[in-house]
Design a protein that fits this description.
- The complex is a heterodimer of chains A (446) and B (294).
- With 446 residues, chain A is of the alpha/beta class.
- In chain A, 48% of the residues lie in helices and 13% in strands.
- Chain A has two domains: 183 residues, Periplasmic binding protein-like II (D-Maltodextrin-Binding Protein, domain 2, 3-Layer(aba) Sandwich), CATH 3.40.190; 204 residues, Periplasmic binding protein-like II (D-Maltodextrin-Binding Protein, domain 2, 3-Layer(aba) Sandwich), CATH 3.40.190.
- In chain A, the strands form three sheets. In chain A, strands 1, 2, 3, 4, 5 and 11 form a six-stranded mixed β-sheet that branches. Chain A has a three-stranded antiparallel β-sheet with strand order 9-6-10.
- The chains are: A alpha/beta (446), B mainly alpha (294).
- At the A-B interface, helix 3, helix 4, helix 18 and helix 19 of A face helix 12 of B.
Chain lengths: 446, 294
């Protein structure tokens, strides 16, 4: 009996010991992310480049499904004490993680590991979204995007619009003309709040919520329903839908807005610059198109749009040695070469000034496959971010977005008026904010 | 003449059922206990702490219009799916039992759909019901806008019920066929000799004798529609449009996992669990007892 136990222990030690011995040479750590398909392949390439670039650390990167699933899985793992060293969290999961305090702030991590980072090198509106109230970044922007209008240039020219319209009034004229010219779908939209609501308010410098959109504290309240321009905008969209100028395209009905644009079915749509790649690769043969700045209403000044996408967080509770690897990985990602690699293979924008400058100098944005992508940078860098355009720091944003979709669907289906829908959305939003505030009672945003 | 196995040691039977008890404890009682705990607290998703809030979570869900809408939606879906699935399965089973041509082949074909996972069914039916490219797009070709599940809640619900029923038909069919085949042949033959035609025999002999199967299936179908409809909803409608297909399980998922409101979702799961327990009690207390014909 005793012999058997010893043999068993020896066997176990051998099997467990073998990988441990390898890991002694290279410090391993893990990275979980929320991208799938082609984007996931590119992340894997990035990880491989990092592993090949040095001998000390070994990163293991795992896709956890989409953003929401990656966050769910990470939280579950965290509660079981099995969290990864680095995790990718999407923009609207930021508030939860900030309040939890279960992360190592970016600055602390880098200085502890002896890296001297020039933080002003990060592009201001991108850094502002992931920074605390003192403007210090808590996480590292990774895949960053912003909202643009996708414009079918050929169809625009047919109705006398040489360039994409800069105002909603002109866009309306163009849509009417396109319909008269026989287009079955001048513009497509879905019920995602990001481009047509959140980014719309940024471009017009309109508050979504009080206290600088929540940056000022957890007791913020939604105020968008009190903004005449928001009401006017959504009533316009509804009227244009009724007039047949806008068609609804959702994934559930078989075609999302980007596919409707790339196939040439619809002439105008709104979405993330990250879809540039998708449109380019799936566009109908000969589609003449370009991304353009979001329109603004006539008589309103244009402001910068906010950053979207996700950032990378170092989570607490891992062995100290793993943070050395994490810091090395973050430093690696911030090199201009890495940024160019990432932006070339995806539709995302560079996040540092040096990366952006280098790509400009090398003529990145003049290459035929990238034409139009500078629009996103222009939109982000239009001016210094104001307290209202730097971001939304609101709790339960996922549920708010779901409520937005439901209220919009109710209005578009004619169950209630647009004004009723917006009022109801504001009320539901405030309930969500109060619940969030109660959940984190006694805590303040960093 | 009763035969009973006895164990010499009182410990042995407990040891024998221990693995089963452990599994039930780990996968049912433990999570249920946690859910109860969460339902009375406000839980921070990242585990930073929780505070006791008493009945607040329940008050909030019972006071929310969205919650009652999800209850209504669940009931519509459950009763719609069950009624349709039972009716169609009964008809099919009656035909197969009459040995229509090639019924052996049909029998196998009719059992297959139950083996398909709900998300796969959702994907297939999404193509079938696609307003521009699917089978139903012919409706739109004739009358533009006649079929619009992306914005019309009734259409979306109809689409879900059809897909849900399609899967349940297979399950029900197996039970109905078994029930039909266990009806004593002499009864049917006697009726035939008395001059009753096939339809009359179905109405007066076969269907009444199927009553126990029928009630069993009603309960199973209802319970199944309450809890297993998640995959279909997630793929086909994601709860929309305007909450028209947001059934209770989907709302629990959306609030808890997507929205990170663990406490609110836990309270909703407790209510749903109560509902399903109630259905099961009804089955055991009333249906099983009263439905003994033989």
């Amino acid at each position: 009996m005793k012999f058997r136990l010893t043999a068993l222990a020896a066997g176990l030690a051998l099997t467990l010991g073998a990988p441990a011995a390898q890991a002694q040479q290279r410090q391993g750590f893990t990275f979980w992310y929320g991208l799938t398909g082609q984007l996931s392949d590119v992340v894997q390439e990035v990880c491989k480049r990092f592993n090949d670039s040095q001998q000390q650390y070994q990163i293991t990167c795992t896709s956890q499904g989409d953003y929401a699933k990656a966050l769910q899985n990470t939280i579950a793992a965290f509660r079981a004490g099995e969290q990864p060293t680095i995790v990718q969290v999407y923009d609207i999961g930021t508030a939860d993680l900030m309040l939890s305090g279960q992360y190592v702030p970016a600055r602390a991590l880098m200085s502890e590991q002896g890296y001297d980072v020039d933080w002003s090198n990060y592009i201001a509106p991108i850094a502002a979204y992931y920074a605390n109230s003192k403007g210090e970044m808590l996480s590292f922007p990774f895949n960053s995007s912003t909202a643009v209008m996708y414009w079918n240039r050929a169809e625009g020219r047919k109705v006398g619009f040489e360039n994409p319209p800069a105002t909603w009034e002109d866009l309306h004229k163009a849509l009417v003309a396109m319909k008269q010219a026989g287009s079955a779908c001048p513009m497509s939209m879905d019920f995602d709040s990001w481009a047509l609501f959140e980014q719309f308010t940024a471009a017009h410098n309109i508050p979504v919520a009080s206290k600088d959109n929540g940056y000022g504290g957890l007791d913020a309240e939604y105020v968008f329903d009190n903004q005449p321009l928001v009401k006017q905008h959504f009533n316009n969209l509804l009227n244009w839908y009724k007039d047949g100028l806008i068609k609804v395209r959702t994934p559930e009905s078989g075609q999302n807005v980007i596919a409707s644009f790339a196939s040439g079915d619809c002439n105008v749509t709104f979405g993330s610059i990250a879809s540039h790649q998708t449109v380019r690769l799936t566009a109908k043969e000969g589609l003449d198109w370009t991304p353009a700045l979001l329109p603004v209403y006539a008589g309103h000044e244009r402001y910068n749009t906010r950053v979207g996408g996700a950032s990378l967080w170092a989570l607490k509770g891992r062995p100290q040695t793993e943070y050395k690897g994490a810091a090395a990985f973050f430093a690696f990602l911030a090199t201009p070469e890495s940024e160019e690699f990432w932006s070339t293979r995806t539709g995302y924008v560079p996040v540092t000034r040096t990366g952006y400058e280098r790509m400009k100098d090398e003529g990145f944005f003049e290459r035929p496959e990238n034409v139009g992508r500078e629009v996103a940078m222009k939109s982000l860098l239009l001016r210094e971010p104001t307290p209202l355009t730097k971001g939304l720091r609101l709790g339960n944003l996922t549920q708010f977005r779901a409520a937005y979709a439901n209220e919009m669907q109710a209005a578009f289906a004619g169950q209630k008026s647009m004004d009723q829908a917006l009022a109801s959305l504001q009320e539901q939003g405030n309930q969500l904010l109060r619940r969030f505030q109660q959940t984190y009672r006694g805590k303040t945003l960093p | 003449m009763e035969r009973r196995a006895t164990f010499r040691s009182p410990l042995l039977p407990w040891l024998l059922v221990l693995p089963q008890l452990l599994i039930i404890f780990v996968f049912f009682y433990w999570p249920t206990g946690e859910a109860f705990h969460w339902a009375f607290t406000l839980e921070q998703p990242w585990g930073g702490g929780r505070q006791w809030v008493g009945w607040q979570n329940f008050q909030e869900i019972f006071g929310s219009a969205a919650y009652w809408s999800s209850v209504r939606t669940s009931l519509t879906y459950a009763f719609g799916t069950s009624a349709l699935a039972i009716l169609i399965a009964l008809l099919l089973a009656l035909f197969i039992d009459r040995e229509v041509r090639a019924s052996r082949g049909w029998r196998v074909a009719l059992i297959w759909p139950y083996a398909i996972a709900a998300p796969a069914i959702g994907m297939i039916f999404r193509f079938v019901f696609d307003p521009r490219a699917g089978v139903f797009s012919t409706l739109n070709a004739l009358w533009p806008g006649a079929w619009d599940p992306a914005l019309n809640g009734t259409h979306a619900m109809l689409m879900l019920i059809l897909a849900g029923a399609w899967q349940l038909v297979a399950y029900n069919f197996v039970f109905f066929l078994a029930g039909l085949q266990s009806i004593p042949r002499p009864l049917i033959e006697a009726a035939a000799m008395d001059g009753a035609g096939p339809l009359r025999r179905m109405r007066d002999i076969q269907v009444p004798l199927l009553a126990p199967t029928f009630f069993f299936l009603v309960v199973i179908n209802l319970t199944d529609s309450f809890t297993n409809s998640f995959g279909l909803v997630d793929i086909m409608t994601a709860g929309g449009p305007a909450r028209a297909t947001e059934i209770m399980v989907y709302k629990i998922y959306a609030d808890g996992f997507k929205g990170l409101d663990y406490s609110g979702a836990a309270a909703q799961s407790i209510v749903l669990m109560g509902l399903v327990i109630l259905l099961t009690v009804i089955q055991f207390r009333f249906v099983e007892r009263k439905m003994h014909y033989r």
